[in-house]
UniProtKB/TrEMBL annotation:
Transmembrane segments: none annotated. Pfam families: HTH_17 (PF12728). Residues 10-58 form the Helix-turn-helix domain. InterPro entries: DNA-bd_dom_put_sf (IPR009061), HTH_17 (IPR041657), WH-like_DNA-bd_sf (IPR036388). This is Helix-turn-helix domain-containing protein. SUPFAM superfamilies: Putative DNA-binding domain (SSF46955). It comes from the Bacteria. Gene3D superfamilies: Winged helix-like DNA-binding domain superfamily/Winged helix DNA-binding domain.
Amino acid sequence: MVASMQRRWTVEDVATYLGVPVKTLYKWRCQCYGPVGVRIGKHLRYDSDEVVAWFDAQKLAS
């Protein structure tokens, strides 16, 4: 199995994509809402495909 060499998104990248403040992403994380992020040491990273899939699911839910 070959690991994806795709660059992971930072909190700032996700905030820009979703059009929300970074603070909102951290709030969502505490509420177990929003796209799933993974903590790597002190850094939080997101899989871009999962962020897009989460966003698309929100469109279907409304």
